[in-house]
Design brief:
By secondary structure, the chain is of the alpha+beta class. The chain has one domain: 2-Layer Sandwich (Alpha-D-Glucose-1,6-Bisphosphate, Chain A, domain 4). The chain is about 25% helix and about 35% strand. The chain has helices at about 20-25, 30-35, 110-130; strands at about 5-15, 40-45, 50-55, 55-60, 75-80, 80-85, 85-90, 95-105. The strands form two sheets. Strands 2-3-4-5-6 form a five-stranded antiparallel sheet, with no helix packed on it. A three-stranded antiparallel sheet has the order 1-8-7, with helices on one face. Strand 7 (about 85-90) and strand 8 form a beta hairpin.
Length: about 140
């Protein structure tokens, strides 16, 4: 029987249209702009997206773009290991709601799980600030 993992679902309201939020988050090139606790840089390598994290390089794969706001992605920290990361953007009036679930992985300490939650909370706040300031529209 499969093991059930502890989880924590986090959300943040963003005062931007759902299609604008989805378009920004669905582009892996934007990860270092908002997921700053996790992603230091991103690059393409042999058709894959590779992110540089505090724990080293990892492959990341997003689900295909869709009309449902699904931003689920998979992080591969080591060959044969793939971590599922569920994420959604939902309409919230004229704005958006980002919903992100953090799972406590097997062998993960309570302290590390709390740290992962804090990192995601930080990154969601960064995403909110960046998009509400219109920084995604600025030219480099």
């Amino acid at each position: 029987m499969a093991m059930t993992l502890a989880s924590r679902t986090l959300s943040v309201t963003i005062n931007r249209a759902v299609d604008e939020v989805y378009g920004f988050v669905a582009n892996p090139e934007n990860l270092p702009k908002w997921a700053t606790a996790f992603c230091k840089s991103v690059r393409r390598s042999n058709g894959d997206w590779i992110i540089d994290t505090p724990e080293g390089s990892m492959k990341v794969r997003f689900v295909e773009r869709n009309a449902l706001g699904v931003l689920d992605h998979y992080v591969t920290p080591a060959p044969g290991v793939e971590i599922y990361v569920p994420m959604r953007v939902l309409a919230n009036g004229s704005g958006s709601e980002i919903v992100f679930t953090v799972f406590r992985l097997p062998d993960m300490s309570e302290a590390r799980f709390a740290q992962d939650i804090a990192f995601v909370e930080h990154d969601l706040r960064t995403l909110k600030q960046r998009l509400e300031r219109g920084e995604d529209r600025a030219t480099p």
